[in-house]
DNA sequence: AGCAGGACAGAATCTTATTCGGTCCCATTG
DNA sequence: CAATGGGACCGAATAAGATTCTGTCCTGCT
């Protein structure tokens, strides 16, 4: 994250916002179609999208893969609390967690916990292994609270 | 969600899994490149990907847009508890919540709360409005707990 | 009014997607 | 055991789309 203030909204005009909205819904919409939808030429559209990527407004394009289909039907949100005397190590620790294949998202939050881990595993055994060996088993972790996810749906 | 058992993993071979892994990282990798990476012909690759979409293994392709750049720098995870005498209305209620522009994800979970709402708003005022008017203000909601999100990173 | 900078459009080019016909492999059947 | 049917795959041809380049227009500044 770059510390460039509230992300200078002045840098984005209504057309950019339209492009972002369209690409958020369909990340594979052809450049042609995009250009027509927002009312600019394809070539212009291309440079705008390149710019949005460089700015960081678009962080990437990803297929939304159903975890159940890749052998990870069990999903959970794990709230993790770090020992107060190890708070400065949170960054590195969370980064190492992000490297675990089962981990899909890491949310650093305020409140009774330090971060939330969205994980998808093959079975509850694997889930337990992560919790006991990668979290509770670590001297950095003061406690965890696991919530099984029954269903996950995107907004809009 | 279709109730087709543990998503019949037998339907996916190692090549399919490779394709899913690649597309999850880069949803815009050209079909050409994909085919070469997994060792099949482009035409074959195309039919496989079409099939993965039809099966539901790939739910869609989306640009990962930084909320801060579209005027929503404030993110939060809101834990929502539904009144026990209104549990059967959760589905419709959550669905209506998913329609709010600020809502990015809805997680139905087990534990002390019924679902988690990942929201991104323009300011804390908007966040408050959602909590008081769309959640606490509703007779369905027994309580909420809001955690500001300082940072969100994807796994891997 | 003249000038410089930036953004855009349109045409040309090149890359990529998609379709189509035919081949190979495997399992089933006579 | 050989013939048959089905499925998946490949490669070439075609269609579609991406990308580059050049010239124009608009805007802001002097």
TrEMBL record, chains A, B:
Pfam families: AsnC_trans_reg, HTH_24. The keyword Transcription regulation applies. Keywords: DNA-binding, Transcription, Transcription regulation. GO terms for biological process: response to amino acid. CDD domains: HTH_ARSR. One of its GO terms (cellular component) is cytosol. Gene3D superfamilies: 3.30.70.920, Winged helix-like DNA-binding domain superfamily/Winged helix DNA-binding domain. GO terms for molecular function: sequence-specific DNA binding. It comes from the Bacteria. InterPro entries: ArsR-like_HTH, AsnC-type_HTH_dom, Dimeric_a/b-barrel, Tscrpt_reg_AsnC-like, Tscrpt_reg_AsnC/Lrp_C, WH-like_DNA-bd_sf, WH_DNA-bd_sf. Residues 12-73 form the HTH asnC-type domain. This is AsnC family transcriptional regulator.
